Task: structure prediction
Amino acid sequence: MEDLKIGVYVCNCGTNIAKVVDCDATIESASRLPGVAIARPYKYMCSNPGQEMIVADIREHGLNRVVVAACSPRMHEPTFRKALQQAGVNPYFLEMANIREQCSWVHEDGAVATEKAKALVKAAVLRVARHEPLERRSVDMCPDLLVIGGGIAGMTAALDLADAGSKIYLVERADHLGGNLARVDLTAPYLDSARDMLTDRMTRVVEHPNISLLLNSEVERLEGFVGNFQATIATKARNGNAADQVATVDVGSVVVCTGYKEFDASRITHYGYGKLPNVITSFEFEKMLREGGVETKEGKAPQYVAIIHCVGSRNLEFHAYCSRVCCMTALKYAHEVKSAVPGAYVSDIYIDMHAFGKGHEDFYRRSSEVKTLFLMYAKDDYPVIRRADAKDDCEMLIEVNESLSGETIEIPADMVILMVGMEARDDWADVAHLVNISGDKDGWFIESHPKLDPVATTTDGIYIAGACQAPKDIPDSVAQARAAAARILGRIAKGKLEIDAVFAEVDEDKCSGCRMCNELCPYTAIEFDAEKKRSHIISALCKACGACVAACPSGAIAARHFTDAQIFAQIEGVLA
Amino acid sequence: MRIGVYLCQAGIGDVDAVNLHSIASYAANLPSVEVVRDLGLLPKVEPDAFAAEIRAESLDRLVIAGDTPGFFKPAFTRAMALAGEDPKEVRLASFNAFGASSGNGTARAKSVLACAALGVPFPLAAVPDTTAVRPGTLIVGGGISGIQAALEIADAGKQVHLVERTGTIGGHMAMFDKTFPTLDCAACILTPKMVSVGQHEMIDLMTYSEVAHISGSPGDYTIKVRKKARRVDVSACVACNVCADVCPQRVTSEFDNGIAERKAAYIPFPQAVPNAYLIDAESCTYVQSDGAKCGVCAKKCPKECIDLDQADEIVELEVGNIILATGYDVYDATKIERYNYGTLPNVLTALEFERLTNASGPTGGKIITKTKRVSKKRGEEWVFDVDEGVPPKSVAIIHCVGSRDANHNAYCSRVCCMYSLKFAHLVTEKLPGAKCYEFYIDMRAFGKGYEEFANRIKAEGTFVIRGRTAKVFAQDGQMMIRGEDIISDRLVDFPVDMVLLSVGLIPAHGSADLATMLGLATDDDGWFSELDYNASPTETERGGVFVAGACQAPKDIPDTVAQAAAVAAGVLKSIATGRGLNSRADLALSDIERRATSLVRI
Amino acid sequence: MAIRANPKLIEELETYGAQDVSKCYHCGNCSATCPFSQDPYILPRRSMRSLQMGLERKLEGDLEPWLCYYCGECSQECPRDAEPGETMMSLRRWLTSRYDFTGISKLFYRSWRIELAAILLVAMLTGLGFFLFGLSQGNIHHYDGVNAFLPGEKIHFFDWGLAIVLLVLLLTNCARMWWFTIGRDKSKRVPLTAYIKSAYLLPMHFMTQMRYAKCERKRPWVIHLILMLSYVTMLILIMFFVKRMAAGPAIDWRVHAFGLAATVGLLGTTIFAVRGRIKKTENHYKHSHETDWMFLILLIVVAGTGILQFILHRSGLDMAANITYVVHLMSVVPMLGLEVPFSKWSHLAYRPLAMYFAEIKAEAARAEARASQGVRAPQAA
Result:
């Protein structure tokens, strides 16, 4: 083996790192480590000049290993691997020391942080010395697509890819397409027909030769890996006697567009939903609008209509997040009530008016102009609805601690519309498990990067679009669905996929065939060869999580790039 | 079937763009149309009265036509229900939604109405023919939106020409310090993408260039790009800074939003892509003196890559699709006199503060107030001086500067609430003893994790005051701020050391010219009009022309990225099949009628 | 105790001129811009809020509308074009109708036709009455002297009769204003000493309108002050010196100089106002209620006929002077009899009263705060 020539690069990350960690001291200590040929700082290692510095040093000084002390490898490991590759060094001869998230961002005491940074750099230097050259492999990319959910996002993603020539399996649990949007009459803020929009999409989906529409269906199982998934789809029989149909299809990518469900308004007792007959949810009001039946349960035209915002959203008790669409929907109702019941008085009880999109503020202004009475309440200080007395000219009274006047106000109401927020579907965890992605504490699926990669997930080949990622309005759902389509189209265009070289391997000689690892693997990447009585790992599925490595009683499993020697060297470095 | 057509104008669009008489007589001649009524502007629609008419005329389908007929739909739906007819049979013919507000508005309005009368969604009938598409794509604008779109398309192996007006890509995002709500450092997540663009073999990057002319038709556009003379050979420059060191001319730096200076020979910022210097002809002594004076940079350049006599160059491109990603400018705060921006030294705009707080900015990320400096040459001026500047003890942040205001821009700029909260966080984090005040109207924290971020900022001790600030003024040499604290029911009038104006967004300068070149509609505020607000937010009436990011309307980074990627889907789809859609504007009324009729038979 | 909102009130106020209140989204810009806005009287936003929600009782008790002089800064800076200045103006009209126990004011403000009809009716009756009265006891060819058509001393008698009626009406309304704004609120007791201590404010504000001078632009204040002083001068002349004014043939410059100056003041300022309202030169001239026009036209007619009869009389055209005098009275009587108690002109009493009441209430609140030692903790600043 040739002599080690390690280059150590310490990033200042602007002042993110440098303001706490003494970068010069870190470099000084690194330069004395065995095998280190060069150690240098730079303001932004990830920038073009930063990377070029590495490339130039490799070429000039013949470096054969590189340590970058900067941020989390999740952020920039691919960036620097590319730099190594560009300079003609195997990209796996890189190790990152995370001195930002693990040092400067978590410690206030500069001295302590610097000592820790030194230790992490040392660990990285010792580890990188034991790195082995690894090669990535490429696999075929199946152009076909599985779309889970037939709402606006799912249909949009399906249509884009189908138009480009892919075969699409659009799986919808209900017996019709359209999702929650099918329950809506008009869209905000231009009051266009939601039905026309859906009819357009649905007609295209149904008539599209490349789309295989599977209604009354659910995905039961998803196996395989990016470019090569096998999905098992069960379709419920139309009549009770026939057996359910189960089909298995091959797809290259999966787009999850499972949408949302509305918050259960009866959970907020102050509003009397379920007890007071004319307290209804926004979706119940949509139904009235569609059927032309804007009237109280007693069949009268309501004189006073109140709309309460943030039902289930933006509070401590239920959901902290904003549901994003309710404000505009509420403004839409203000117009619709005035249209259906001329002369009605509308009060709109809100916290902050989220009219942020194109045309939204104008819509808000117009709602004011038609004399909607806006009342502001403070978060967690719910209005209270009670029955009015016989002498009142209304059915209910809503008591609000009104913030803009500082008064406690009683508003008359004959009908109260609760703007129920969006919630993750009850079975979000099952769906997440099915396609091997994760959800946040609210059950919204987690994207790969909240800003720069809002459609991909941590599992390659699985994309998310629409409100299953977070509450979203129609244009944003459509944009996200199309973004997912773009990502998939890009991959299809290339035909082949590169697979990471890091995965676990079973040493067949040591394997005892105990099958302990088989059940443990979260990615179902381990299969058992009954003939040989040995376990075998499908490398393309393996995410190198290391669960099997730790569990194997015979020590037969080793993860590439995470060998015992490498890890022990790293530990030694940290402890020394 | 007996159809009643009602023309109702809500007064939202350009009401005069269509000829209602012509539309009414057209409607009267449509099959099954029995009643046509022009109810005029803002009609009062009484469901009971209309129910009577529906009964009397035995109508079983109503078409409401107008600029925004949805405003009247609930009344007509109710009338149908009262008359015992199917309330679903109320159809909308929305002129505004389907582009009948300009050009041949009347013909478009007729086609929209014909579709509604037939019960066919307009977008389903109004599908233009396809046309062959060239594989190349032009992207105008190198901000995060253009970068994202370029990478999505180039990663699929398709050719992209990315034209950027300034000397580097990166756009506004490159100026930011942190991004909300995760507080990722903007440079950390952006620069790798910029580097990828710079290195991508499928991306033809043209910085310091402008689109001069566009001709051709959907799928086959010819573009003339003016490559402004950079006067530095990009491929040879190693960004050694010698030219800037020797350059005698100092001017204010655009990238630092005027809070620092640069030389006439400069690089916008150290991580610029391409990583090469350029000579600003406007301020270069050599260029301005027609070669009589100076020229020292060219002499000193160790790579001999400066050509001060270089001229602009016109490059011609042939592309199939065009993506507009021209982004935004910020509102000119001097227009709002009551905030005294430009007269009081420590009133800063948002972008100025981004640079001030940025680790790679002029003060190295230190938040300080300006220091007065007097020199013979330039007189009295206020500058950020790292050595002498003191940190402010109190900072006020004013939301909605130029936004949500009939006297300025009536629309909401969507990003200011969140970036203002981010500023509050940066102030309280960097200056632990300082007080920070936010003056807002509605706290629009609507995105994923935004509300939680707003809660966090309040918990960090920022005073969040509901009320628009009325004015910022000086009193006995101290800056004062006056506003109403509505929730506490009192007026506040107190001294502050620094005021940050959360200026709103306006369409980028020059975007109107692009719109004219492409025959593209913009809304009243100048943002590019999308084909359909809900259904097609990234396409335009013009075939092969897409909009991405903030040039369509103000947008934050995640939404911009999603939209930019979405645009790529449209482009890639057309390249993959070799066919793209023609302009919808070119569709003839008879074509739409025919197609709508055929769809009914199905 | 919760206050019941009345979403219908905003519609009622439309007839008083408040067309744009509902547009307000409560940014607070207006209150902070307003030069009169000062703790505890924050205006105009609070009034806008009470009006949007229809808090009638609260609005009745508010002094804020009277503290506003309509400089229009608020309307100019309003981001929603909600016209807060005009809203305050409308509220003043509404409050006038509320203070007026007869209900006539309400009729006038809600229908300009009724007001116009009332003015014309009173004018006709006045004209007829004085004409018949003149014929019954004098000669139309004589302006003064023994056969005078309308002798000064008799007119004087009539003046005082009208003045007493008006005073009773106005004082009753002022008492109601006190009841709404101070008396009714049992929770806050205003000590008698406060009334006495601040009593000087009443004549001071009445005579100087010094508060108006706080507006950034001073011209509206000057115009208004000239108009008001001219009017008061005229009033004093008529109430006490009408005999000398009508006497001839010698000119008594001790009264006539004042009369001429006041006439010039009245004509000048009203013509300025009419021109302003037509051309919308000032913020407060942008919106004109019908009652504003009627008020101005009456003033011009009064001042015009006043000076005309003087000229005619001096030119020896006694009959023409007498007829003009009758026309003059036909405009004076409805102006005083209708405008002062029931319409726009009542503000000559309400405004200074409001300043006085405002100070008393604030003083009482301060005393209460001192007593309870409740120092308000600084919240945001």
Summary: Chain A has a mean pLDDT of 93. The first strand of chain A starts at residue 6 and ends at 11. The CA atoms of residues 5 and 63 of chain A lie 5 Å apart. The interface with chain C takes residues 304, 345, 347, 353, 364-365, 368-376, 397, 399, 402, 404-405, 407-412 of chain A (CB under 8 Å).
